[in-house]
Design a protein that fits this description.
single chain; 196 residues; mainly alpha; two-stranded antiparallel ribbon
């Protein structure tokens, strides 16, 4: 999923922070020169006073706490990534089940349309033979038209469901997608041994 890509960059940045946290502060070297331009016998270099100092902070505890902070920040990034992965898996499962349900609805309405078409043909034969009223034929044709409208609506909904599922996977579309799965609930108990 595209939303997980940012964690790669965050993790790389946290690695840099961990490396940086182990680096001590700079050592300082100071050179002070006094009385360089003195007068009389202290004139020039002979009367000059110099002080050389080296300083650095003894920071073992500071380095350790900076390292621990950087390491815990990296742990938070890993935890946030796991949370995001679970949330995306949940959302993907919902989208998949929705698309699968729509596929089943399309199959059911297509079967209903075939039955309605067959019924219209039979009623038309009965009307031609004078055994049934014209109103029965009109009702059957209206039912068939309504089912075709429902099928058209479902086809639009399933295309939206496919695009949503494809976007969840970072794709533009699912080409000729037919999802496989079952919406039936298995009522047989699952044994612990089969899960191992």
């Amino acid at each position: 999923n595209p939303e997980l890509k940012s964690f790669t960059h965050q993790y790389a940045a946290s690695e840099g922070k961990i490396k940086q946290s182990t680096l001590p502060t700079r050592k300082e070297l100071n050179l002070n020169v006094e009385d360089f331009a003195g007068s009389n016998e202290l004139a020039g270099i002979s009367g000059m006073q110099t002080t050389l100092s080296v300083s650095w902070v003894m920071e073992n505890e500071l380095l350790s706490s900076r390292y621990n902070l950087a390491k815990s920040s990296q742990g938070m990034i890993a935890s946030n990534e796991k949370i995001k992965r679970l949330a995306l898996a949940n959302e993907t499962a919902k989208l998949f089940i929705n698309a699968l349900a729509l596929q089943e609805q399309v199959n059911v309405i297509n079967d209903a349309i075939k039955l309605s078409e067959s019924a219209v043909n039979e009623i038309n034969k009965r009307v031609s033979a004078g055994k049934t009223f014209q109103a029965d034929l009109l009702r059957a044709e209206a039912e068939l038209a309504q089912q075709k409208l429902i099928a058209e609506d479902l086809n639009h909904e399933i295309q939206i469901a496919y695009k949503s599922l494809a976007a969840q996977w970072g794709e533009q579309s699912l080409n000729e997608a037919v999802l496989t799965g079952s919406l039936e609930i298995n009522n047989k108990p699952i044994s612990y041994e089969s899960l191992k």
